[in-house]
Amino acid sequence: MTIIKLDKYPVIDDLNQPEANLIEHVRESLSQFGFFYIKDTIQARVWIDKELKNLKDSVDVYYGEDAYTGEGSVFHGTYSRLDNPKNININHYFELISHLLGIISCALGYPKEFLQEVSQQENYGLYIYDREEEYMDYIKKADSQEISIAPHKDRSLITLIISIEGFEGYSQEYGWFLIPDIEGYLIVQVGTLLQKITKNKFKANIHRVRGFDSSKALFWSNLEAVSTTALICP
């Protein structure tokens, strides 16, 4: 199967550009691709391990949907919900998510507060992904061309991917294509909850990971806790 590299990826270098331009850029990017890159203005790639290493209350959760069947999938990982935006070590993540939700709301033609209000009603919050030791042992033995995380869509409103290698997306237009890890940038990705709200105007990005799973990501969602016995291998 051929994996292509796109001629041009959706990149937004400045979230503070004139609002009309920004909204149109976000609308086009999410309608066509289901994701876009943004500059890492909060230095998440530099600090995330240090800032989040002492988090507690991790739980195993229902995380995604199978790309082909739509059935729920649970991947090897645990998730901590970050519920204290006043914590100086993590409040910049909440501020960035809030900014993004406002822009996306406007891109949908709603007031800026729309997705924040939906989030409050549905008890959405910020979750950090932390892979299990069992899965890490598996991934260390994986071949660089092996699919280590099966094709799926995130069960989130949006996912903020801080860093990832071996990341591949899918669309009917391109088939499977590379989504490179770009130093100094984050990836904002549509999840199934936003797809549902937009009635498929913004479609959740189908994606998978090949080779070593180096992903560090945050999910804006209300993830459902599951039994550890429900976990499945990719």
Description:
The two termini are 19 Å apart. Strand 10 (167-171) and strand 11 form a beta hairpin. The chain is built from 6 helices and 15 strands. It is of the alpha+beta class. It is globular. It has helices at residues 19-32, 44-52, 91-107, 114-122, 133-140, 192-197, and strands spanning 11-12, 35-39, 61-62, 64-66, 72-73, 78-82, 125-130, 147-154, 158-163, 167-171, 175-178, 185-190, 206-210, 216-221, 224-225. Helix content is 27%, strand content 29%. The strands form 3 sheets. It has a 7-stranded mixed sheet. It has a 6-stranded antiparallel sheet with strand order 5-4-8-13-10-11, with no helix packed on it. The longest helix is centred in the middle third of the chain and has 17 residues, at 91-107.
Helix and strand succession? Answer: EHEHEEEEHHEHEEEEEHEEE
Task: Provide the β-strand percentage band.
Answer: 25-35%
SS element count, helices:
6
Main sheet attributes: strand count, strand direction, barrel closure: 7 strands, mixed
